[in-house]
Design brief:
This protein is mostly helical. The protein has helices at residues 3-20, 43-50, 64-70, 98-103, and strands at 75-76, 95-96, 114-115.
């Protein structure tokens, strides 16, 4: 591999990774002029993205109609499996949100850990 090709690969692939590996307490430093064409992403921006909550705010609903307006196929605990009878296919497209399920547990009529499931 030629030296020019090696330097080009380093500046386009490895140098941005070195900037992202800096601790979050230190601000990202700007790269030397012409080091790479893409803009540098500040590590503070990455920390803000990572800090967003994964689960929506838990809310108690009065009935399944209200719950399905927000969660069209129902809401469930982790590792829940739909309980079915006969040749009916189980529901798999419900939303997994343990805190929301805990507040609406009374809406789970068949006690399969999925509240208001609907195909």
């Amino acid at each position: 591999m030629s030296r020019t090709l090696r330097n080009t690969l380093f500046t386009t692939l490895a140098a941005p990774l070195l900037l992202l590996a800096a601790p979050l307490s230190q601000p990202a430093t700007a790269a030397p002029a012409g080091a790479f064409a893409s803009p540098v992403v500040a590590t503070a921006d990455l920390a803000a993205v990572a800090a967003k909550p994964v689960e929506p705010t838990a809310t108690s609903f009065a009935n399944c109609t209200e719950l399905r307006e927000v969660y069209p196929h129902g809401v469930a605990k982790r590792y829940a499996v739909d309980k079915v009878k006969g040749n009916t296919k189980p529901v798999h497209n419900f939303t997994v949100a343990p805190k929301v399920y805990a507040l609406n547990k009374r809406l789970d009529r068949d006690q399969d850990k999925i509240a208001c499931e609907k195909r």
